[in-house]
Write a structure and sequence with these properties.
By secondary structure, the protein is of the alpha+beta class. Among the domains are: 8-176, GAF domain (Beta-Lactamase); 190-285, PAS domain (Beta-Lactamase, 2-Layer Sandwich), CATH 3.30.450.20. It contains 14 helices and ten strands. It has helices at residues 8-19, 25-39, 71-80, 87-90, 100-103, 112-118, 154-161, 164-181, 206-214, 230-243, 293-299, 303-313, 323-332, 340-354, and strands at residues 44-50, 57-63, 97-99, 123-133, 136-146, 191-195, 201-204, 253-257, 263-270, 279-285. Strands 2-1-5-4-3 form a five-stranded antiparallel sheet, with helices on both faces. A five-stranded antiparallel sheet has the order 7-6-10-9-8.
Amino acid sequence: MTVPKIDANRFRREALLVCNVSSDPPTLFASLRLVFDRNIESDGSSWFTIDPATLLPTGLYDFRSIPADDQARFLEHEATGDDVTRFATLGQERPYVGILVDVTGGKPDTSARYREFLQPNGFEHELRVAFVRDGLCWGGVALYRREEGPPFINPEYKALAGVVEFMGEAMQRAILTSKLNREDEGSRAPGVVVLGPANRVDLISPPAQDWLAGLGVELGGDAWSTVLPGEVYAIASHARRTGAGHFDSGPAVSQAATASGDKVDLHAALLEAEPQGPVAVIVEPARRPTVAAPILATYGLSDEEGEVLRQALLGVPGDEATEQLASVLAKVGVAGREQLAAKVYADQYALRLDHRQPVGPDGWFEGPLPSGPVVRPAADDDGDGADAGDGDGDGEEPKPE
């Protein structure tokens, strides 16, 4: 058995360059998969989008691992199963990386995921990493190796832990980018500013105009003549510097305050893999995780009760005898907090995943609960399973641009 080797510096450079380029989730996953394949070999992988409020899955992009017929059950187990290194726990525990054989004390068969999904598909080894920035998990990946392959090793673990923050920012930005492509006209929709060479303003989307007006920007003339806040130019320069191979700072993200005291987040990325080329700066309202409004409406929960539900779903210790938690359990229709995840997932996530409902800027699905039959895509020619909840509904394996 060949012992795997990894050039941690090369992996970090390649991963950060990919994370610094604007993309949607399928393209980001495909590009990262190429980087992983060059540096951390695997025989299959499962890529997830995650609701940062509840840490329940909102999408699965599978590559030669879990058969299409098993993916719904696989996602249900991820959301509700009693198992190690689920993203519901991995996304809350630094360094957000886990090797199955290590966390099970050398006994992977004690994991239900191993027994029900990995071993039956020929996989012996698993390494997982959650994509987390600023304490919020937006996605993650599970890498698999077959029995004849080498186990995952500590240098690979450490290399992944070193890029978690960048992958977390890239994942959130990718979700925002796909939202921009759908041209939502809502008042809190994210907007984009495109800066060309020398930071000349080439484009300001309508939602971005609203946010920039709140930051005191005078609009009305040509975009190129607009003078932006210093924070926008600074974050664009940060993205250019990262694209040029200077990785001494964190991801290109910052925050600014509007005249009314509201906070807006700024996310910058190169539009092309060229530091002197155009830079996209996404402007959006600063968000903290909250349970989605449709979930609150379904169970008749107040905003305060929604936070109680969120804490319970995340496994935060609490006294079930408290009046608030007892009220939430009664409204959801379960006897105890251990049934909450299964009930909420079944009611609110499973059908949306089956219909591949796209994800909005807050990490929750867009649109009402779908109805009608689920149309299954044909299997791909290369033998990997169809994707569940892939955001664009085509069921194809994402490919790099």
